Amino acid sequence: MELLLLLSMPGGSEWILIFLAILLLFGGKKIPELMRGIGKGIREFNSAKADVQQQLQDGLKEEPKKEDAKS
Questions:
Q1: Of the candidates 45, 50, 58, 69, which lies 20 to 30 Å from 24 by C-alpha distance?
Q2: CA-based nearest residue to 24, from 16, 12, 36
Q3: Per-residue pLDDT reduced to its tens digit, 2-55
Q4: pTM score, two decimals?
């Protein structure tokens, strides 16, 4: 039961404390750069994931090659 309590999401006051700690660590000017970097990383990840899914779907749609019966 205690482990479940430790893994629960933070509440309102905890989010404020987390935000203030991030603000103190990175400063007001670095936070937009940090968020842009995170957003760019997420976009690249989603793009790569979509490419892999498309390749898998294309691979499943291809007809299997028939071997020559001349043996």
A1: 45
A2: 16
A3: 555 566 777 778 888 988 888 888 888 888 888 899 999 999 999 999 999 999
A4: 0.53
Q: 36 is written with which tokens?
A: 């842009």
Distance CA 66, CA 32 (A): 56
Q: Rounded to an integer, what distance in angstroms lies between the CA atom of residue 69 and that of residue 71?
A: 6
Say how far apart CA 38 and CA 41 lie, in whole Å. Answer: 5
In the block, tokens 């842009």 appear at: 36
